[in-house]
Design a protein that fits this description.
Layout lengths: L1 H16 L14 H9 L10 H15 L4 H4 L5 H14 L5 E11 L4 E12 L7 E3 L2 E5 L2 E4 L3 E3 L2 E6 L4 E4 L3 E2 L5 E6 L6 E5 L12 E2 L9 E4 L3 E5 L6 E2 L3 E2 L14 E3 L3 E11 L3 E2 L12 E6 L3 E11 L4 E2 L10 E5 L3 E5 L7 E2 L10 E5 L3 E5 L7 E2 L4 E2 L4 E2 L4 E5 L3 E5 L11 E2 L9 E4 L2 E5 L2 E5 L1 E3 L11 E3 L5 E3 L4
Parallel strand pairs: 2-4, 3-6, 4-7, 5-8, 6-9, 7-10, 8-11, 9-12, 10-13, 11-14, 12-16, 13-17, 14-18, 15-18, 16-19, 17-20, 18-21, 19-22, 20-23, 21-24, 22-25, 23-26, 24-27, 25-28, 26-31, 27-32, 28-33, 31-34, 32-35, 36-38, 37-39
Antiparallel strand pairs: 1-2, 29-30, 35-36
Helix pairs in contact: 3-5
Length: 481
C-alpha cells in the first residue's frame, strides 16, 4: 500500500515539475501547516458512509504534497495516509468465496480414534502464483489447486481437504511458533495435500509444513485425515523437517511444536547433508544443536517418516541432526501403522544425530503397529547413534522406552561394540538405557517376544527369518492371525 501512495507522489512531483510556475498555486493552501492540518483532520477509521470522503481527502492531501519541495516533503508524516489508503484498498477487495463444507473431526478416547461429522462455513482456497496468508478461520480445498509461493498461517487456521481434491503447496506451508494449523478431511483419506519446503539465498531450509527460512521453531500441527505428503526444503547442504522445525545454515535447528496425528496417510521426509527429522525437529547448520521433536503424539493413520542424509541425519520421528548435539525426541504412540527410518546416526524413533553427542529419545508405545529402523550406530527406538574413529568420537544418545501394547518391530544399526540397540541406546555410550516392555509383541532385530498377556485383534504378518517366542507366564490369544 505504501508503494502505491509513494508512486502517486512521485508521479505528481514529476508532473508538477513540468508545469509553469503559476500552476503550482492551490488557492493559497500550499505549505507545511495546511497539509499537516488536513492530515490531522482525517478520521481514525474508514467506514462505509465516509469512504468516498476519505478518498477525496487523501487525493487532495497528495496533490498539495506534490507541490512541496523535497526538503519540505521530508518533514511531512504520511503514516496516517498509508493506513487509511490500506483500509480503502481492503474495502475494495472482492469478498472471498465461501461454502458450507462437511468434515470429519477425530478424537482419542484412550484406546481408539473415533470420528464425528461436522459442518463449517469455509473460505475456498484458490490458485495463486503469489504468496498467500491464511488468517484465523476455516479454509477448504475443492478440486485441483496450486499455490506457487509459501503459504503462511497466522493464528489458528483450520483446513478441510474435500474428497478428491489436491492442494499443491509448492513452497510449503509456514506454521511458526505461536500459530497453529489443523487439517481435516471429509473421509480419512479423502483429499491430498502436497507440501514441499523452500530455501533462501543463505541456505536456510524451511519445513514442508512448519518452520520457515527465518523463524525456525514450528507452531502446532494437527492432522485428522487426508493424504499428506510433506518434504522439507533442501539447499545444497541443509534440509528442513518434513513436518516440524526448519534448518538454518548456521545455529540451532528449529524445534517442533505440538504435533498430533489422528488419521490419514502421511508421508514426511527430510533429505540432504545435514537434515531434520521426517516428523519433528529441524537440523542445525554450521555449528549448533539439532531441533527437538517434542510433544509428538500419534493415535492413528498410516505414517511413513524418513530422514535421509550423507552426513548428519535426523530421526525418522523425533529430533533433528546437530553439528554439536543432536535433537531430543519425545514421542507417544497409541495407534496407527507407522514406518519410521532414521538418517545417518539418527534413531528410527527418538533422538537425532550429533557431531559430539546424539540426542536422547523418550518413547511411549501403547498400541498400533510400529516399525522403526535406526541409522548408522543408532537405536531403532531410543537414542541417536554414536561411534568412534581414529580422528573423531560421537557419543550415542540415551533411550527411555516404555511399551504397554501394540506390535513393535525395531532394528538397531551398526556392528560390534558401537552397535545401536534395537530398543534403547545408540552406540558408544556407557549410560544405562531404560526399557520397559510389559505388554505387546516386540521384535528386536528379528527376535520376537510376546510380553505379558496379548490379545491379537486383526492379523499381522511376521517377516521372513523372524522368530517369535512366547515365554513362560505370557500368553497370546484373540481372533486375529
Amino acid at each position: 500500500m505504501k508503494k502505491r501512495i509513494l508512486s502517486i507522489i512521485t508521479a505528481l512531483a514529476l508532473c508538477l515539475s513540468l508545469c509553469p510556475t503559476w500552476a503550482l498555486a492551490a488557492e493559497g493552501e500550499g505549505g507545511l501547516c495546511p497539509i499537516e492540518d488536513l492530515i490531522a483532520a482525517l478520521p481514525d477509521t474508514v467506514m462505509e458512509d465516509n469512504a468516498d470522503n476519505v478518498r477525496a481527502q487523501l487525493d487532495h492531501i497528495l496533490a498539495l504534497y506534490g507541490e512541496l519541495s523535497w526538503e519540505e516533503q521530508e518533514q511531512i508524516d504520511l503514516s496516517r495516509c498509508y493506513e487509511l489508503q490500506e483500509a480503502l484498498d481492503g474495502a475494495n477487495d472482492p469478498d472471498p468465496i465461501t461454502e458450507s463444507v462437511e468434515y470429519q473431526e477425530a478424537s482419542w478416547d484412550g484406546s481408539q480414534v473415533t470420528y464425528e461429522s461436522k459442518t463449517e462455513t469455509c473460505t475456498l482456497v484458490e490458485n495463486s502464483a503469489e504468496a498467500v496468508t491464511w488468517t484465523t478461520g476455516w479454509y477448504a480445498v475443492s478440486g485441483t489447486v496450486t499455490i506457487d509461493q509459501p503459504i503462511t498461517v497466522t493464528d489458528a487456521v483450520n483446513l478441510i481437504l474435500t474428497d478428491g481434491c489436491t492442494l499443491t503447496a509448492a513452497k510449503g506451508i509456514v506454521v511458526t511458533d505461536g500459530n497453529s494449523l489443523t487439517i481435516y478431511a471429509q473421509s480419512e483419506n479423502g483429499g491430498t495435500l502436497n507440501a514441499t519446503g523452500t530455501t533462501d539465498d543463505s541456505g536456510n531450509a524451511s519445513a514442508g509444513i512448519g518452520g520457515s527460512t527465518t523463524i525456525f521453531d514450528s507452531g502446532s500441527i494437527t492432522i485428522h485425515g487426508g493424504v499428506i505428503n510433506a518434504t522439507g526444503g533442501a539447499s545444497r547442504w541443509y534440509s528442513g523437517a518434513g513436518i516440524g522445525g526448519s534448518t538454518p545454515s548456521s545455529g540451532n535447528g528449529g524445534n517442533s511444536g505440538t504435533i498430533k496425528i489422528y488419521g490419514g496417510t502421511i508421508t514426511a521426509e527430510s533429505r540432504g547433508f545435514s537434515v531434520g527429522a521426517g516428523i519433528g525437529g529441524g537440523g542445525s547448520g554450521g555449528t549448533g544443536n539439532g531441533g527437538a521433536g517434542t510433544n509428538i503424539s500419534i493415535y492413528g493413520g498410516n505414517i511413513t517418516a524418513m530422514s535421509y542424509s550423507d552426513n548428519n541425519g535426523g530421526a525418522g520421528i523425533g529430533g533433528g541432526s546437530g553439528q554439536t548435539n543432536g535433537g531430543t525426541g519425545n514421542i507417544t504412540i497409541g495407534g496407527g501403522t507407522i514406518h519410521s527410518t532414521g538418517g545417518s546416526l539418527g534413531a528410527g524413533i527418538g533422538g537425532g544425530s550429533g557431531g559430539t553427542q546424539s540426542g536422547n529419545g523418550t518413547v511411549t508405545i501403547s498400541g498400533g503397529k510400529v516399525t522403526a529402523v535406526g541409522g548408522n550406530y543408532a537405536a531403532g527406538i531410543g537414542g541417536g547413534g554414536g561411534t568412534k574413529s581414529q580422528y573423531l568420537t560421537w557419543i550415542g544418545g540415551i533411550g527411555s522406552v516404555t511399551i504397554t501394547g501394540g506390535i513393535v518391530d525395531a532394528k538397531g544399526n551398526g556392528s560390534g561394540e558401537y552397535a545401536g540397540a534395537p530398543i534403547g541406546n545408540g552406540g558408544n555410550t556407557t549410560a544405562t538405557a531404560t526399557v520397559n516392555k510389559t505388554t505387546g509383541i516386540v521384535f528386536e532385530n528379528g527376535a520376537g517376544t510376546v510380553c505379558g498377556d496379548v490379545t491379537l485383534d486383526g492379523s499381522y504378518t511376521v517377516p521372513a527369518d523372524y522368530t517369535l517366542n512366547i515365554p513362560a507366564g505370557a500368553s497370546l490369544s484373540g481372533s486375529g492371525t
